[in-house]
Amino acid sequence: MDAPEEPLPPVIYTMENKPIVTCAGDQNLFTSIYPTLSQQLPREPMEWRRSYGRAPKMIHLESNFVQFKEELLPKEGNKALLTFPFLHIYWTECCDTEVYKATVKDDLTKWQNVLKAYSSVDWLIVVVENDAKKKNKTNILPRASIVDKIRNDFCNKQSDRCVVLSDPLKDSSRTQESWNAFLTKLRTLLLMSFTKNLGKFEDDMRTLREKRTEPGWSFCEYFMVQEELAFVFEMLQQFEDALVQYDELDALFSQYVVNFGAGDGANWLTFFCQPVKSWNGLILRKPIDMEKRELIQRQEATLLDLRSYLFSRQCTLLLFLQRPWEVAQRALELLHSCVQELKLLEVSVPPGALDCWVFLSCLEVLQRIEGCCDRAQIDSNIAHTVGLWSYATEKLKSLGYLCGLVSEKGPNSEDLNRTVDLLAGLGAERPETANTAQSPYKKLKEALSSVEAFEKHYLDLSHATIEMFTSIGRIRSAKLVGKDLAEFYMRKKSPQKAEMYLQGALKNYLAEGWALPITHTRKQLAECQKRLGQIENYLQTSSLLASDQHLTTDEREYFCREILSFASQQTDSPGHRVALPMHSFAQLRDLRFTPANAVVHVGGVLSVEITVCSQMPVPIHVEQIAIHVHFSIEKNSYRKTAEWLTKHKTANGVVNFPAEASPFPTSQSSLPALELYEMFERSPSDNSLNTTGIICKNVHMLLRRQESSTSLEASSGLALEDGAHVLRCAGVTLQPGPNTIVFRTQAREPGTYTLRQLCASLGPVWFVLPHIYPLVQYDVYSQEPQLLVEPLADSLLAGIPQKVKFTVTTGHYTVKNGDSLQLSNVDAMLILCPEENRAVIYSNTREKVSDALLRVQSSDKVTSISLPAAPTYHLIEFELEVLSLPSAPAAGGESTLLGVTEPHGKHKDTQKTGHCMATTDHKVSIDCPWSIYSTVIALTFSVPFRTTHSLLSSGTRKYVQVCVQNLSELDFQLSDSRLVDTHDSTDLRLIPLNTESEQCIHSRQAVFFVWELKWTQEPPPSLHCRFSTGFSPASEEQLSVSLKPYTYEFQVENFFTLYNVRAEISPPPGTEHCRTGSLCSLDVSITRLSDLLEVDKDEALMESDEYFSTKLMYEVVDNSSNWAVCGKSSGVISMPVTAQATHRVHMEVMPLFAGYLPLPDVRLFKYLPHHSAQSSQLDADSWIENDSLSVDKHVDDQLDSGSVKSRGSVHSAASSEHKGLPMPRLRALPPGQAFNSSAGTQVLVIPSKDDHVLEVSVT
Amino acid sequence: MAVCVAVIAKENYPLYIRSIPTENELKFHYMVHTSLDVVDEKISAMGKALVDQRELYLGLLYPTEDYKVYGYVTNSKVKFVMVVDSSNTALRDNEIRSMFRKLHNSYTDVMCNPFYNPGDRIQSRWTKRMLRVLASSGHS
């Protein structure tokens, strides 16, 4: 580069400009002192206190000492400051009074008078003392006297205006001291003078400025005045203050321009409005551009001249102040504001002139800055200079366009003329840059000289600017310059170079979502790609543009036509196709399955209705729209069932797709939210958990490379899946906006079908949506035909007609006419078929299709139900009534088993627990037409009743009680209840004591029936009874069938009363009542009521001489511990088997409590002899003493139940441990045989007087 | 009067951008977008100091020949950019500041709208208010 010559810090150019100090008097003396003086004066700084509250400054003073001349003194009104003498010094070394009086005094007076005439008060008289000189003279006065004389004569009250400088040329401490004092004085006086004179000057200047509204006021004149001040400050090296002066001028001028714009024009300003004729840019290499200054002085400067000069001065001062970056910044502002001001002042500027001026100025500023800074400094301050670079680039570009240097053909004659005019305006090159190779002037001239040169310069500048912007991170700015460059390349017909810049810029805009720049850049890119012949890219960009809302309809239609015309072209290679992303072409909005659950059976029809929003501005005829489907065989067979699939689908079958990520992915640097789901995998065998995990369903969105997500223009990632399963829809015209397209498919293979890609084809152009997301699937299943039989109610009740629903799921089987279900008949269960029984056929989606009369034919073995014809995957539903014949569990345990009817295994238990109904299962075997195997269906019926019976006695009169409990939820009507003797004994009669023939039995309630047993002759030892009662549900009025009655069979044995037992307690003799603790007598009388009967004939019967007797054992037991039995409580008696034979036993008992006490129990047992072969006997005494409770318990049990059939065996089991020993056996008398006539009687016991006796007896 | 006003999200996408001579919208979009370079620079250069001083006004971002671009950044790093015609010398720093403040207030109101999703583009309904704000500031 043309590094300017000056080193750092910048050399001050104003050598000649130092404050002027005049010297009068002895010139030879001054000449001898001058070297020391000029050297010593600036050595020490001095504080300069300023007026107007300005901050004091330390200042190094220098002066330009000149010989005093009257001409130097400024005349009244002269504003020149640079030539203003700030101080007048009179030098003398006179030490001789005579000499003084003769010459010096006159000279001084003359000097003073001149000063007074010009009203200058800044003067100083210096008396130099020289010892050497003194010695030579004889008539020497004391030193002080001359000084005093001078002071007296001239320094009227200003004695400090006369100073003494002793031996100035000697090297002594005294000399030093004297110098110091003198210099201080000199400096002080100089500063005083500055303050005073500058203050005065400023006041004058201000006055002048205040007059600016007056007509005839000239800015240029004022400029010169204030610049004078600036010069002085500069002279004093007060660059800051100097700069302020220029800045004030700058601001003043700017304000005038602004005011002018607002209509407040100043006359003088019109001068600056003269047409621009020269545009040779800023000149910054000279400290003062005297040429321009003179123009200003002569009031001939143009606006650009004034601005240029002003800026060059500011620049100089800023560089003095080591603020080069401010120069750059101010330069940019200046250039902008100049352009504005020229506009505002409506100055006529030839086209391109300003561009030249700005271009030259930018480069000049840059070169000036480069000239005073090193590379590192420049590199680290690019941010300050890059604006100028970019501005220069911009201007050169517009010059290039203006001069026809950018067009392909080169400049035409008009362009050339313009170029010549522009170059003329530059004038000749300035001498100061004439030798610089790369001067702005030369550059511009060269750039405008030819197309090639322009290109070179423009590219250099652009690349430099881009590089600078990039290096400081101003990427956006760099891209913008790059775009200009791309435009340039496009003009130069080199789209391959342009593409990179356009792509770069587009990527940037896309990343930050700036719609208009995106559109604009895309448009440029489209042009570029078209020229490059990048068909695919061009089509893609075109599709993006055709869908771009920011373009006009015409533009959009243009790009749309581009695609269409390509699509209609006959391509040479028929297989070739261009895959483009779909989102710009059309967007998938929603998808709807019919059926809504997206589950179809094999062969079923599935329709998929999609709504796509066409982004194209015109209707587009698409040859084919296809959905590529991925098929997977579902391994989990459970998933195939229609029920499962139904549950796991969206209710209405509509899948909505989120609005396609708009061309602005930026709105979030955030990616789509993670869609996480829990995953449990269970083992198919035992359903235990195998694996668990989390599945991210949108991995493909999240894990793609950031790069590819932003460069939407890259089309390479579109892979078309070629699958066998494709849903197609041909010949669709997509209108702009939403369109509905319906795909139909017939389901073939069972499995899961996943919709993967959507593809619209226009000839060789394919628009592909590579992922359909969220996941959309439909399922195809195949189902075996099924028969389901289920009761309509919770449970089926036996004995009354119950409805059973038959559901035939046809699955893949077609039910033909004539197909029938063959039910093998069960004896105990009837299948009732009402006349008008209809079967309803439903479609798979539970819509009723038709109904048909159901024909049921029954033969002995088989009931045949003819099914109506039904297509596959339909349901046939019908209801049948079944009736389970009631089977009463017989009391004897001999249940009547009919056919294959099985009593429930837990029959006994359920009865015992009492609240559950007994159940019976009926297994029906059904032959279905679709299978060679029979289907066995079990129907469980519950018996609604539980029945118990008991035998009641009153003396010898006998009663049978039957209790019917209703366990079901239904109420029943019982009618025609009867009890019959199954053995039909003629002499036995059962007389019902029940009044009502019809009885209602409510749910969970019981009804009791009682019959009296009467007989005429000897009663039979056992009675076989059958209880039967008709029943019908109370609610139903009419039943189609007559119901079988409910029966209950039981058997009562030994019901005839043989013995009457009577117990009586009487108080001790002499007392009225029993007392606790006192013994009472218990009299038990056992009376035989009948003669020998059939039942008596057992082992205990003994016969001797026609006289029969039997052995009985009695036992008195008081389980409630009310009584203490004293003495023997039991005994064996021999009872004659004769009517009215009575045996009395007397015992003593003691009441333990007071009150009405029930009598102790008296129990009778048959005492069987030990000689019996099959059973052992108990030793009566030991047995009695052991008093086994278990035996008692058994007895109690059997007393309760009417059944005594198994008592022997029970007993023997209890005593089995005694087997083998010859022991007598006991057998309780059946409850019917012994009647306790004193049961329920009570005896009043009154408490004993002395309680303690009671206590003793208790223990 | 500003010729273009833009509200730019933290992530540098435009939430709202409107220029008053609409015919040259594109130019302003480019200009505002490019100005983000300087906004970023300013925020990162004196980010700390700005936060401390609660000074949201970024000042002149950069001048061009015809326009001046000013910036302002909220505490949530939403940027306001205003483009002013260079010839409009009536607008000094203080006016620009107060316009930004009004813009900020108005933006805060938009944010307070419960139906507005932060980060969404601001709908044009806001424009009227915005224009009123800016027009009134222009005269102040």
From TrEMBL, chain A:
Residues 792-884 form the TRAPPC10 Ig-like domain. InterPro entries: Ig_TRAPPC10, TPC11, TRAPPC10/Trs130, TRAPPC10/Trs130_C, TRAPPC10/Trs130_N. Keywords: Golgi apparatus, Transport. Its main location: Golgi. It is found in: Golgi apparatus. GO terms for biological process: early endosome to Golgi transport; intra-Golgi vesicle-mediated transport. It holds the Pfam family Ig_TRAPPC10. Residues 1198-1223 are annotated as: Disordered. Residues 1023-1246 form the TRAPPC10/Trs130 C-terminal domain. The keyword Nuclease does not apply. Residues 456-546 form the Trafficking protein particle complex subunit domain. GO terms for cellular component: cytosol; TRAPPII protein complex. Residues 16-328 form the TRAPPC10/Trs130 N-terminal domain. This is Trafficking protein particle complex subunit 10. It comes from Bos taurus (Bovine).
Automatic annotation (TrEMBL), chain B:
Gene3D superfamilies: 3.30.450.70. The keyword Iron-sulfur does not apply. Keywords: Cytoplasm, Endoplasmic reticulum, ER-Golgi transport, Golgi apparatus, Transport. Its main location: cytoplasm. One of its GO terms (cellular component) is perinuclear region of cytoplasm. It is found in: Cytoplasm, Perinuclear region; Endoplasmic reticulum; Golgi apparatus. It comes from the Eukaryota. One of its GO terms (biological process) is endoplasmic reticulum to Golgi vesicle-mediated transport. Belongs to the TRAPP small subunits family. Sedlin subfamily. This is Trafficking protein particle complex subunit 2-like protein. It comes from Bos taurus (Bovine).
